[in-house]
Every structure is written in C-alpha cells, then in structure tokens.
Amino acid sequence: MTDNQSSSQRLRIAIQKSGRLSKDSQKLLKSCGVKFNVNEQRLIAHADNMPIDLLRVRDDDIPGLVMDGVVDLGIIGENVLEEEQIERESLGKDAAYTKLRQLDFGACRLSLAVPNEFDYRDSGSLEGLRLATSYPNLLRRYMQSKGIVYKDCMLKGSVEVAPRAGLADGICDLVSTGATLEANGLYETEVIFKSMACIIQSSVPQSDAKQALIDKILSRVNGVIRARESKYILLHAPTDTLNEIVALLPGAENPTVLPLNDDTNRVAIHAVSSEDLFWDTMEELTKLGASSILVMPIEKMMG
Ligand SMILES: Nc1ncnc2c1ncn2[C@@H]1O[C@H](COP(=O)(O)OP(=O)(O)OP(=O)(O)O)[C@@H](O)[C@H]1O
Ligand SMILES: O=P(O)(O)OC[C@H]1O[C@H](OP(=O)(O)OP(=O)(O)O)[C@H](O)[C@@H]1O
Ligand SMILES: [Mg+2]
C-alpha cells in the first residue's frame, strides 16, 4: 500500500465472510472490475487495482459497521438491515445509512410458520403463543400492527426446530424454497417481510475522491445487473411477420433489421431484450416463421 492509499483513503466495503451472500457479493465486485484474492483465514482483502479494502465479517455486523461509519459500503440482506435499524432506533443509536440499490441476489422472505397439525386461521391464531425467531424487532413491528400479543423466544439459529423441541408454538424465520420448513414439519402462514441483498453507504460525508470511487462502483453495479437481466437475441424472420415477431421480443426497443444474402423475403433481427426469452416465446416465434434463433448472455452494459 502506498502513502496516498493509506487505510483512511481506501474505500472500505463490508461483505459477508461466509454464507448465503458471500459468493454473490464477491462475484459482483469482481464483475465491477475490482481485482482481489480472498484468503479464507483473513478478515481483510486488499484490491490490487483500486484503493479498495474488503472486510469479511458476519452479516449481522454489516449494518452497524456502515451506520457507525467504520466502513463506507456494505452488501447486506434487507432483512438484517431493517432489523438492525429498528433495534438502533429503539435504543436511540445512530441508524442512518443510504441504500444505493437493491441487488439481484439473496431473495428470501421472513415468514410466520406453524406445525402442520396447527389449525391456523389468521395471525390472531397466534394470540398469547410463543414464537421463536432471530428477528425479534421485525416480528414485534408486524405483530403490533396486527394488535396481537405473543411471547418471544429469541434463537440465533436452528429456529425451525424450536416447535418440535417444545421451545415455541410457531416460528418467524427466513424462507426461500420452503424446503427447510417442510423438513421440519412446518408450513408457512404469512409473509411479514420480503428481502433482497442491497448495497448501502455510510451517511458520514466522504472525501471527493472516495465519493467519486463509490459513484464509479455504483455505475458499474448498475451495468452488471442490467447486463445480467438482459439477453442479446439474433434471429431470421419473414418480412411479412416482422412486426408480430418484434412485438414478441420482451422489452426490445428498436431492434436492428438487416437484409439476408440472396433472400428478399427474410431479414435478420438483432435485439437486446431486457428479459430472458422463455421457451414458450421461442415456440411462438417459430410459429411465426422465425428461424436460427440465438439467445446470448451479455457480459457488460453501459449507456
Ligand atoms: N434460503 C435463502 N435463500 C436466499 N437468501 C437467503 C436465504 N437464507 C438467507 N438468505 C439471505 O442471506 C443472508 C445471509 O444468510 P446466512 O444464512 O448465510 O446468514 P447467517 O447464518 O446469519 O450468516 P453469518 O454467519 O454471516 O451470521 C440472510 O440474512 C438473507 O438476507
Ligand atoms: O426455504 P429454504 O430454501 O429451505 O431456505 C431457508 C433456510 O435458509 C436459511 O438458512 P441457511 O441454509 O442459510 O443456514 P443457516 O441456518 O446456517 O443460516 C434460513 O435461515 C432458513 O433456515
Ligand atoms: Mg448472521
């Protein structure tokens, strides 16, 4: 590290050390051109080509590190972020941050779930019962909004086993596929919070140089996510169904139409689509006479 890159001038980004968000967080930063190697034993990874340090920590610590201005940026699930914000606000601690954008991974929901044999009608069925959760603040906010009084059972992990272990009557935990609930003889009754990973910035004012680097990273994140959501589509189409074919391409504006050699009845279409092209649409396209349909991933996008 050179003098002009002393630690206070380097941008500090907190990411999850190991868990559901860690690989996707690293992949996103690498796609943004940040070059680094992670040593599993080390808390910090220095980027080789930009004044950026990655701090690899437990996800629960990331919102607090950003809110206290210890790090400049953090990649975190909205569930953990919101939980920490409610906690800090209730304690009168600083809970300010800026959400730069939602990301395209870490999709899950915080839900209420009860044992399969539980006769659940609505959240009122939980009145007076004990609920196990790692998210006491989000649960309290939801139950207060419904006017339901319940008892807490705070567990940092293994929440789904609590009812079977006789620790609680129901749970409030993260769900994605629902496989963990099913494996534990539980069923989901109500979604109380929907979550994605997001990138947040500390509210502490930054130097111009650091803010410029944050803006550059954010612009690249936008480009990476737009590219991941988009496809490059090439196909051949009969001229008489051209308009119908173009109308079927999702989110494709002003596609390029090119003549084909020795074939005046058909043209080539090149289009960038804002969504994937599903098999059903491809089948519709072939029914309209389209052929040589290619759907390709886009690596980068800008402008
Ligand atoms: N099943 C899931 N599918 C997708 N995203 C999930 C899933 N479960 C959790 N997440 C998201 O990933 C985040 C991290 O989940 P993980 O299970 O790795 O956390 P953890 O066990 O608390 O990790 P840590 O050791 O860092 O505290 C969650 O807070 C949530 O935002
Ligand atoms: O609905 P599903 O697809 O089954 O996912 C839900 C599970 O995923 C998360 O745990 P994870 O597997 O990350 O392990 P952890 O309990 O160690 O955090 C979450 O805490 C649930 O237990
Ligand atoms: Mg955690």
TrEMBL record:
PROSITE patterns: ATP_P_PHORIBOSYLTR. It is an enzyme of class 2 (transferase). GO terms for molecular function: ATP phosphoribosyltransferase activity. Keywords: Amino-acid biosynthesis, ATP-binding, Cytoplasm, Glycosyltransferase, Histidine biosynthesis, Magnesium, Metal-binding, Nucleotide-binding, Transferase. The keyword Magnesium applies. Pfam families: HisG, HisG_C. NCBIfam families: hisG, HisG_C-term. Catalyzes the condensation of ATP and 5-phosphoribose 1-diphosphate to form N'-(5'-phosphoribosyl)-ATP (PR-ATP). Has a crucial role in the pathway because the rate of histidine biosynthesis seems to be controlled primarily by regulation of HisG enzymatic activity. This is ATP phosphoribosyltransferase. It comes from Shewanella corallii. The lineage of its organism: Bacteria, Pseudomonadati, Pseudomonadota, Gammaproteobacteria, Alteromonadales. The gene is hisG.
